[in-house]
Write a structure and sequence with these properties.
Largest sheet: 7 strands, mixed
Keywords: Hydrolase
Oligomer: single chain
Pfam family, one: Lactamase_B
CATH architecture: 4-Layer Sandwich
Strand content: 15-25%
Organism: Methylorubrum suomiense
Distance between the termini: 34 Å
Radius of gyration: 18 Å
Protein name: Hydroxyacylglutathione hydrolase
GO molecular function, one term: hydrolase activity
């Protein structure tokens, strides 16, 4: 049975006291790196406080209805009317692009994503249906209700360069980490060991409503109900573990840092098939892949 890997609370990478003093509704992880939790998922802000107009980047675009919260946090952190240089995406699931169309339009911002994720972002393809049979818990059982239809930001959509660079984020590179979705990517800054992983792995048991509410720190495989290629997901986690990151921000759960986090990530990489992969399920038996087109459906 799939299971989480507990991590000591001392591995938390944010400082609630400093966050409260700053009052911009975000949680700092490094001087130029912060996140905001939006009920189900996190968005990440890359840029120094008070960076001003076009001086920062938004990673992922929240759940439906979260635009006011994202705008308020951005204004408080970067300054009034401060628009991002770009919105970059780990992937296009509904809880990561919930207000993408609105924010990209209102901020007149380019959107960057992996080529294999483009069909979900230009209106041409829907994701495969969720699998409510995996993971147990309320969040998994409710997954058939989650939207899988595409958004359309085709006028602003750009593909990440093949050289691994992230044009609006100097010093960072993107790493293809498929499994949870075909074009899922993570972002790595070698200079200080910062890693933004989206849903390649998460730091809460996202299938469980209780775990989502309590946010107890743990290392966990990608959310099961939307993961469509388990062999690729395992390979992606092992690719990220080799980096030996200093700090990690996932799409779900609290950011983690330090030796205890790395031990947990190493354990997930080593035992992925035992601790992360469901015993059975729609995509355990028959993965949905980009190569044969089964990862894309008519919208």
């Amino acid at each position: 049975m799939a299971q989480q890997i507990p991590v000591s609370p001392q591995a938390r990478a944010d400082d609630p006291r400093a966050d409260a003093e700053r009052g911009d509704h975000t949680h700092a992880v490094a001087s130029d790196l912060a996140y905001r939790r939006l009920v189900l998922a996190n968005v990440v802000f890359v840029g120094e406080p008070d960076a001003g107009d076009r001086g920062w980047v938004l990673v992922d675009a929240g759940i439906p209805g979260s635009a006011p919260a994202i705008r308020d946090a951005a204004e408080a952190r970067f300054g009034r009317d401060a628009r991002p240089a770009a919105i970059v995406l780990t992937h296009g699931h509904f809880d990561h692009v919930g207000v993408l169309e609105d924010l990209a339009r209102d901020w007149d911002a380019p959107v960057f994503a992996h080529a294999l994720e483009r069909p979900y972002l230009d209106g041409s393809a829907s994701y495969p249906p969720p699998d409510p049979s995996v993971g147990g818990g309320l969040m998994a059982r409710l997954s058939p209700l989650y939207p899988t239809s595409p958004v359309d930001v085709s006028e602003r959509l750009q593909t990440f360069p093949a050289d691994g660079s992230v044009p609006p984020m100097p010093g960072w590179r993107w790493i293809h980490t498929p499994g949870h979705s075909p074009g899922h990517v993570s972002f790595w800054r070698e200079a200080d060991g910062s890693l933004i992983v989206g849903d390649a792995f998460v730091t809460t048991a996202q299938e469980s409503a209780y775990a989502v509410a309590t946010q107890a720190p743990e290392i966990h495989g990608p959310p099961m109900y939307l993961t469509t290629e388990w062999d690729a997901a395992a390979s992606s986690v092992r690719t990220l573990a080799v980096l030996k990151p200093e700090r990690v921000i996932a799409g779900h759960g609290r950011p983690l840092a330090g030796p205890d986090m790395r031990r947990g990530l190493d354990a997930l990489a080593r035992d992925f098939e035992r601790v992360a992969v469901p015993e059975s399920g729609r995509y355990v038996e028959k993965p949905a892949r980009a190569e044969d087109g089964s990862a894309y459906r008519a919208p």
